[in-house]
Amino acid sequence: MQQRVLPRALTRAQEARRQRVIDAAMELGLEGGYEAVQMRDVAAQAHVAMGTVYRYFSSKDHLLAAALVFWVEQLDARLAQVPARGDVASERVLDVLERALRAMGRQPQLVAAVFASLASPDMAAIECQQQMGAVMDGIIIRAIGEPQPPDHAERTRIIGHVWYSSLVGWVNGWSDMDRVRDELAVAVRLLLPSGLTPNGQSALTS
Q1: How many CB atoms lie within 10 A of CB 119?
Q2: Exposed end of the chain (fewer CB within 10 Å): N or C?
Q3: How many CB atoms lie within 10 A of CB 63?
């Protein structure tokens, strides 16, 4: 069993070094995918010692999972600058997810690298997975807008699961982006029908 080390607040210089390591991992992943991200190469790319890399990241999967968190946070910041388009919640959610898919589609090697880390049993990587999920939940909830059904958290979580599993299929080569979009559209329209009322029921059946 891995021993959990409690995180300590980083100084500005430490945070800058940690970010350099993440940036280096993303550059290597962008060029060659998961296998191209080797800790020794990351250290050289970031101009830090190997010990520095392991000071911040317990494993390669932890590093890549942290890179995914950073990427999704950057995506969240960009999406927040341009409000979701659409007259109903399902249209707005599909709009932001489509923008996310376009960003990922431009960098398939990097997506493959960071998504591979999500299967890791490393506890630090698992915490990053949870952080990434929370950011995606926030993106979807913001797109849903008001009024939100009382069970919006459950609906959002399921949409997030479909988003993740569909992208895994694309990363592994047994699906394509058109299928990812189709699966997301089906899930979003089932969970957020255009007639959804504030109490979470469809206007057609309430």
Answers
A1: 10
A2: N
A3: 30
Task: Tell me how far apart the alpha carbons of residues 76 and 137 are, in angstroms, rounded to a whole number.
Answer: 10
DSSP string, the chain: -PPPPPP-PPPHHHHHHHHHHHHHHHHHHHHH-GGG--HHHHHHHHT--HHHHHHH-SSHHHHHHHHHHHHHHHHHHHHHHSPPP-SSHHHHHHHHHHHHHHHHHT-HHHHHHHHHGGG---HHHHHHHHHHHHHHHHHHHHHH-SSPPTTHHHHHHHHHHHHHHHHHHHHTTSS-HHHHHHHHHHHHHHHS-TTB-TTS-BTTT-
Q: What is the mean pLDDT of residues 188-204?
A: 66
What is the pTM for the complete model shown? 0.83
Evaluate whether 149 touches 196 at the Cβ level (below 8 Å). Answer: yes
* Closest by CA position to 132, among listed 104, 164, 102: 164
